[in-house]
Amino acid sequence: MIDRDSPVTEDELHAYVDGEVPADRLEAVTAWLAAHPEQAALVAVWRAQGEAIRARYGAVANEPVPDRLKLDQLTRQQRSTGRSWAALAAAAVFALIVGGGAGWMARGASAAAPTGFDAFTSDALDAHKLYVVEVRHPVEVPGDERAHMTQWLSKRLGVDLRIPDLQSIGLKLVGGRLLPGPTGAAAFYMYEGPSGERFTIYCSKAGVPESALHFKEGERFAAFYWVDDKVAFAVSGPADRERLEQVTKSVYEQVDRSGGRKS
Amino acid sequence: MATFGKNVEATIPALRRYARALTRDSDIADDLVQDTLVRALRSEHLFHGGDIRSWLYTILTNLNRNRLRSLARRPALSPLEDNDAPDLAGPEAGGRDIERALATLVEDQRHALLLVVLEGLTYREVAEVQGVPIGTVMSRLARARVQIKSYLDGERPALRRVK
Asked: Cα torsion for A165, A168, A170, A175, to the nearest 10°?
């Protein structure tokens, strides 16, 4: 509808309606419209379309937002419908620990662990190996000071922590300590079973919101680790997968259900 | 989190408006907004700065496209009846007309037009939301306007014309 040689293109007319004409072209477009009533009428029609659309729907933005769209509600819902242990365990990624110490090595596709995760798990395993053999000073704060320890470690990590109670599966809290982690402070708790076997939980803030459950096993030790709600956890213990899975399940359900960790 | 949440929250009324105009049904619209928010909260870690508003419009636009794709597999494509004509009178006639006119648009054109006209996004922002060049946004806009005009002028849309 606009001549090829016309100084103003149809695109420019749309841009004019939408306030997208550059300042240095504005005068040319208005002058051209003044001289071309047909095109001016078209512009008026497009404007009227826009007005009709805004008149029809504009007020929706002034309606009160229904509860189900409120952010705190959605966040809470997301947390409470968080991943179940069964679903998490079913999707667990397994790998072998090769060469003991720092060299966690994943096998195949499981190598695609989030960045920083390897550092986290090797720190966790190092701490586990270092402290489970300690007889006199395995922890800084004894287990009977649970309340104090919870408060202290939560403050140092900047995360509301909950120290799981594993009595029901025969593990007594020995105590805990503060450790350096790959991304800042890490909390470390130790538990002891009836025959002196020790399990540890290592946790710190994570760079990702959540991850799959990973399992790694070496000759003597094994660990489950995952990230949930931006906190990374590693549960380490003797290389007995069944027992470790039982412990991890209990830990997972307590840190997940507590709702005590607010991000 | 605090800033992210606040920025998301501030956009909810506009998202509801956009969704309502897209779906023309307040329940479906709020479902769409809810899905958008859930997805946004879940992928907060994927958001690296930039304009949260555009990002949310992008999520909603994509979810709506998916929704229509799954609807398209069912019959009863359009709420329009074959012989309906623009209303000539009545207090809400204008609103119903524009609603029906919007319903005759191709989805990408409807997205582009509403983002510009109702949501006030710039052409550049719409290009980002739709993942196409600005030229494509402009031609969608132009075709949408021609189509709405011909619908309101009482012409049957070309595809619906029976000859």
From this structure: 10
A169 compared with B50, residue with greater pLDDT: A169
The CATH class given to the B83-163 domain equals: mainly alpha
Q: Which residue of A has its CA nearest to B7?
A: A71
Question: Residue A144 sits in a domain of what CATH number?
Answer: 3.30.200.100
Range of the domain at A196: 81-257
Are B138 and A14 within 8 A, CB to CB?
yes
Does residue A240 form part of some domain?
yes
How far B68 CA sits from the closest chain A CA (Å)? 21
pLDDT tens-digit profile of B79-95?
A: 444 344 444 444 455 67
- Written as six digits, the tokens of A50 are 């826009």
User: Percent of chain B having pLDDT more than 90?
Assistant: 50
pLDDT of residue B163: 45
**What's the rounded mean pLDDT across residues B46-67?**
85
Instruction: Please give the pLDDT value at position B38.
Output: 84
The number of C-alpha atoms within 13 Å of A230 and in the hemisphere containing its C-beta is 16
Mean pLDDT calculated for residue range A171-198: 92
Q: Bigger pLDDT: A82 or A220?
A: A220
Cα–Cα dist B9/A133, whole Å: 51
CATH class of B1-77: mainly alpha
Angle at A227 between CA A223 and CA A228, to 5 degrees: 130
Taking the C-alpha atoms of residue A148 and residue A151, their distance in angstroms, rounded to an integer, is 5
Residue B34 with chain A: CB contacts under 8 Å: 68-69, 74
For residue A169, how many other CB atoms are within 10 A of its CB?
15
Residue A72 inside a domain? The answer is no
Considering the domain boundaries, does residue A263 fall inside one? Answer: no
